[in-house]
Amino acid sequence: MTEAEIERLDREDPFAGRRADFAIPEGVIYLDGNSLGPPTRWAAERLRVTAVEEWGAKLIHGWSECGWMELPSRLGDRIAHLIGASPGTVVVADSTSVNLMKALAAALALQPFRRTILTEEGAFPTDGYIAQGLCRFLDRTRRVKAVRADAIEGALNDDTAVLLLTETCYRTARRHDLARLTAAAHAVGALTVWDLAHSAGAHPLDVTAAKADFAVGCGYKYLNGGPGAPAFIYVAPEHANAPAIIPGWMGHAEPFAFEGAYRPAPGATRMRTGTPDILSMRALEAGLDAFEGVDLEALRAKTMRLGDLFIAGVGERPGLTLLSPRDAAARGGHVAYAHTRAQAALEALRVRGVIADFRPPNVLRFGFAALYLSHRDVFEASQILRAVLSDLEDSSAA
Ligand SMILES: *Cc1c(COP(=O)(O)O)cnc(C)c1O
Predict the structure, then answer these.
(1) What is the per-residue pLDDT across 56-71, written as a single tens digit (0 to 9) for each?
(2) Ligand 1 centre from 190 Cα, in Å?
(3) pTM above 0.90, yes or no
(4) Which residues have CB under 8 Å from 395's CB, separation 6+?
């Protein structure tokens, strides 16, 4: 790739103007937005207003006068737009892990006669922990079965209660076909729970067209909601009556009627549990503001281009193995490599202003969030990685 080509790509970049929406330290190329998104430029002020002008000035009246109580569904509707869900089917609450528990429990309750939660090997650990924990908690007959990604369809059968999959693998960024695998699950009578933690905000999704049953996802990765931002949960309209495993008062049809008996709110709203964390929700709201007016197809096209540019720029190095699909269409928003000295490379990158991340034992991940990265950033990072690896090769040879 020539200087002129990189310049042209940045000149024609429909998101070039959005870089200024993010507060990223001078001199840093941030390639870890798939793990913790950066703050929007207005996030700190939004938090100040919430703390001082809402909480501080209005005290208890903030609940009724500042729209706090509606934030979980208002933010849910904005995320719904990003994942192809209809309004009212997504709420923001709790962590991804807790939402996984709620989604899996709801799906299992709809499948009283089937025993197996089918999932894949090598998925993000919390997903497996939660599924196994739920099975232990329920009864001894439910179980989790994990198979290789290429064996999923073959393992679906009339004992599969739920297919639990992550759309974009946290390690390799390999994407699953949401629609095809959901259809395969439905063909044997199974339901689906999709983990969209590495997907929402990275590329467009259509949970409605795919007929996904339940989905969960993360607020602090591509949605830039801040450390520990609340997560989201999607409940398909046809499962509006699925039970809530944590029937907290905020998921009650009328929380402020203080009734003795639990009466669930309709649909996804019953997946709310306790009082919403308003400060964190405001930070997430600030992150979601950055998606206003974004053409998600164009965002996806740029993400694929950035990944390709990086892979081409890095080229081949001794000891370096590309773990992600080379075909951008099969890849999510990040690119992962294995390297014999991955952790040393990560430290050396940081010294040179490139923030990436490391997953044991030897994986380097580089995230390409298209809202704030330029083609020049990504090309430069690729050259810095080459230089870092070359230094490491020299030092190992010495
Ligand atoms: C990041 C991530 C999570 C995070 O779960 P938390 O409960 O928010 O910590 C879950 N699943 C996947 C696939 C992830 O990538």
Answers:
(1) 999 999 999 999 999 9
(2) 23
(3) yes
(4) none
